[in-house]
Amino acid sequence: MSVSATHPWSTLNIPIDHKAAVEGSHICIHSNVFFRSKSEFNDLSQLWWRLYHAGFNFFSVPANNQNNCAMEHFVQTLPRDKVVIQMEYDGYHYDEDGHPESGDPDVPRNELTQKLGQCRAVGFVDIFLVRGPLDHPETFSQLAAGLARCVGDGLADSVGVSNFQDPGHVQQLYDALNQEGVQLSTFQGDLNNFRRRQPRCQRDGRVIFQSIAQSSGNRTELRGHLGRGQTFHALCRIANRRQVSALTVALNYMVVKGFVPVVDVRTDDEVEQVIEATGWRLSQREIEEIDRA
């Protein structure tokens, strides 16, 4: 994946099986916040509109069963042909007897149909993202069949997986999807985990790997190895030298390394830090400083 030093980052091509690749921003905006009033939703919506107008058009809707999810409402206000919408699905539901419902190929389709019924203006999703962990790889063939139905029925253009702790499980689901004629488009997980042990499917240029960059609430936090130890200290040193935030440096680093960071944005400061991450590149020396940490 090549990235040029433009503002925002050069276009990310997300692979789709049956049509041209979808063009999205190199940073994905995600939020699982729920609003309690119309004014609270409007405040959040204004923040995300600022990002959209700054060139960020990749948005992720969390898995939830509530009707006051802010991101779910926000994506319905966007021009559908100008954005990439990812919708999450909890793949680890269990029935009353404790058996994984992922073994029922109708479950993913029913779940997505229900979600799209709540988001009528969306119509379909570009990426249907299955969240793990899934501890029953013997059900992957049925799960793959259910995801294939979502694609075949026009509910989703592509599928991805998230939070699979075992790279071997990613490969197994990847292979099961191939048997159904569906390509795994994205993987979302911890950058450090998959630098240590990469699934074979990462060598396939059609798979885009995402990694959660930070989660916001009362304060901004970096997740995973970026938010602790020597790596975090390296980010802070570079941030101090460049007079930007550690989050800004982390986002820039991840994009330069070929990852698509997923960032939770809820405040004005976070909007500015995300925007500041684009339009420039870390130097090779700075990248090596982070890599060595």
TrEMBL record:
Superkingdom classification of source: Eukaryota
Segments forming domain NADP-dependent oxidoreductase: 231-292
Pfam families listed in its UniProt record: Aldo_ket_red
Keywords, in A-Z order: Oxidoreductase
Any one GO molecular function term: oxidoreductase activity
InterPro entries noted in UniProt: NAD(P)_OxRdtase_dom_sf, NADP_OxRdtase_dom
Protein name: NADP-dependent oxidoreductase domain-containing protein
